[in-house]
């Protein structure tokens, strides 16, 4: 079949979360669309990200809870792990989630869908891997991201894996070395440990997920190191494939003796990189940053003042599903109305690590505020003696909240503790509504709930801003142990 040239109003490269969102918005204004996908339809979240990882975390947490039975006065053995059944459920439920995404794509107009890889020839022209050419008035880049794997890891040879590979396991291995103490490394490393796998987690610079607040970060380091082998500032000397698996020679701390351990796999959880280095951006007039990512306006997703837009993981900004969804819709909306391009206020930043205790960040981070020179105050609470947390034996955690001393507005927070996925949402909503700490404290707090710990931190913050009294150590209206 001879190659064809197709002219469209809008071309969208990629059908992940942002690409699908862009398509739905673009479809509202035009029927002249090319939705281009070279790989599998679907999203990183459903296939290899947020959903399958939570499917692994769920049985790990259920088994771990059995370890505290005796503290409740309950007698019983810790359940044995049937790795094949654990992984079977992970794959089955993962496939179910993916099927929902595929069903959505199947409903898209068939004449819009093109199965091929795309590469820019010029600002308006895309060469497809099937030999065809697309000429588009506007183009949306939604090419997603891929694993960033240091060359040093190549010593593991065929035992080098990523989280994509984990969710294809038929059985749980005996030992895994996890490199990277970010969200993926923490979640998978702890989950595998709790399912009986010998896990060593290797980090760098004492980093823990997205935390930048030194007190919260140190609390997190101490907590995780008490549970499993976490080399947060270790030094790896050698990675070598041996008959038994992959042998790692390392120092757990700069001053420690050299240790040699052998693992079944080396799991690389060292971040992701935007898929923009192989789509021919050098053939366009777009300005690129040092990573090769087009410079764009995050309030409009427009690259410079051009007809090209970028959304989702491809812009290497905030690799989270809800952000990719928002960005995709915004890119599709503006591509549809171009050359009239509108800016939209973005939602308050919100991030959660589904470790145990959970980690969450919301609004402005400690690092952002510290570097910006904003005069901010801090209010904190420990969950170790928080009433409901202690009752449930989940009383590990520290929350630190930040407020503007001049306006009294809540700016952000970093935290580790029980139920932080829920507390962070409450905080994000109040920050987005630009509520003052004093106003937030007028909202209802039930007793006894973990949210009372949030109230304690807010009261401390109000006092630290000079806008309220010193909170009583054991306030009567809080109830015992609040």
UniProtKB/TrEMBL annotation:
The answer to whether UniProt assigns keyword Iron-sulfur to this entry is no
SUPFAM superfamilies under this entry? FAD/NAD(P)-binding domain (SSF51905), FAD/NAD-linked reductases, dimerisation (C-terminal) domain (SSF55424)
Obligatory cofactor(s): FAD
Annotated FAD/NAD(P)-binding domain residues? 9-328
Reply yes or no: does the keyword Oxidoreductase apply.
yes
The source's domain of life comes to Bacteria
Question: What family does the entry list?
Answer: Belongs to the class-I pyridine nucleotide-disulfide oxidoreductase family.
Q: Which PANTHER family match?
A: MERCURIC REDUCTASE (PTHR43014), PYRIDINE NUCLEOTIDE-DISULFIDE OXIDOREDUCTASE RCLA-RELATED (PTHR43014:SF4)
Q: What is this protein called?
A: Dihydrolipoyl dehydrogenase
Q: Which organism is it from?
A: Agaribacter flavus
**Organism phylogeny:** Bacteria, Pseudomonadati, Pseudomonadota, Gammaproteobacteria, Alteromonadales
